[in-house]
Amino acid sequence: MLRFMTAGETHGKQLTVIVDGVPAGLKISAPEINADLARRQQGYGRGERMKIEKDRVEIVSGVRLGETIGSPIALVIKNLDWENWGTLMGADHAKLSDKYLQLRPRPGHADLAGVLKYNRKDIRDILERSSARETAARVAAGAICKKLLGEFDIHIYSYVTSIGGVMADIPALPAQKLAALAEKSALRTPDYHAEKKMIETINNAQRDGDTLGGTFTVTADGVPVGLGSHAQWDRKIDASIARQLMSIQAIKGVEFGLGFGFASRAGSAAHDEIFYSSKDGYSRATNNAGGIEGGMTNGQPVVVSCVMKPIPSLRRPLRSVNIRTRKPAIAEAVRSDVCAVPAAAIVGEAAVAFEVADACTQKFGGDSMHEMMNNFKAYGAQVRNYRP
Ligand SMILES: Cc1cc2nc3c(=O)[nH]c(=O)nc-3n(C[C@H](O)[C@H](O)[C@H](O)COP(=O)(O)O)c2cc1C
Questions:
Q1: CA of 311 to the centre of ligand 1 (A)
Q2: What is this structure's pTM?
Q3: Which of 131, 314, 336, 347 is the pocket-test mutation for ligand 1 (most atoms within 8 Å of CB)?
Q4: Do 237 and 247 form a contact (C-beta atoms < 8 A)?
Q5: Which atom of ligand 1 is least distant from the CA of 47?
Q6: Distance between CA atoms of 107 and 319, rounded to whole angstroms?
Q7: Model pLDDT for residues 246-292, shown as the tens digit of each residue
Q8: Domain 3-385 falls in which CATH fold?
Q9: How far are the Cα atoms of 76, 93, 384 from residue 140, in angstroms, in the given order?
Q10: Each residue of 175-185: pLDDT tens digit?
């Protein structure tokens, strides 16, 4: 079983992530993880922070001479502007002047619920951890999971499908091709015509002190049949992928395949008919199910889409209440992105990579890559030869 846990505040010293359960013998290097960290920092509409931070990971345990050794992998990403924040964010006891207190909670953020729940006098105690800076740690963990999946020829792709109501027209191409087009786009979309309108919409939002959300799709290609299980609710892989994606900051909805589109279709036009050929085995002509039936992967690509709400920190802040005076106030204005949907898509890749990698380690087990690969091959032969 794979597990990961992150620690770290946005303006703290560093982000830390521990990934446990990766088999021994997986080749991994810091530059491979850094490549994904850099992808998370891209996208038109990002804030100043992206210019300060050029995220770099340090592998501090679990990897020796370029290979995992079966022990927990610990990764560290230093926050480069820590020296400007040490006084405000340090662990040592210090008396801070009241002028540093954040007292006006931002609608759409963890601020108000957080101070009430944790009984804090400063909203900073909440916002430092609830902020999406933490997603850099998730992306680092996801990069290790992608590397593991690559050994089984499973690949994770993403692209943006809409921003601020501007819809991309997604051509009927394999996910790999769509993602290759997206990789060259400032907004991670394969539709360069829509990209222009999206940029315009972001510019307008920026001018108005406003923010935008949107949608993106993540695909896992090459996933074998039978990851997850129909047999128990907490083993259903669509449920675990959805939970992982829903835990990403600002993600408000997840759908597999046709998703909400199923609502208006008759069954005959909804479900993916089954075919067989001796060359290719079982196949489908459509993938409305998004590669999952009954909580198990069905051998088709796993296709999952997410909606991201507009960024809740506004340059023209919304109405709020001062938690000390209880008088009306406008919310704190915090340095922020105008739109972060392309970045969220990269975090989405990490989320899907983690869950698919976890399902693989559960299904194929093994303390070493060698053992896991042997189990994977034996299972592949069993599926190919299956005939009751
Ligand atoms: C990649 C990414 C970047 C984000 N950047 C910002 C930001 O700059 N400012 C902001 O207020 N929220 C940003 N968010 C969203 C907030 O972190 C999120 O809305 C907030 O923590 C509340 O959580 P919830 O929306 O899941 O309820 C970002 C989210 C993601 C995934």
A1: 6
A2: 0.98
A3: 131
A4: no
A5: 8
A6: 8
A7: 999 999 999 999 999 999 999 999 999 999 999 999 999 999 999 99
A8: Chorismate synthase, AroC fold (3.60.150)
A9: 9, 31, 35
A10: 999 999 999 99
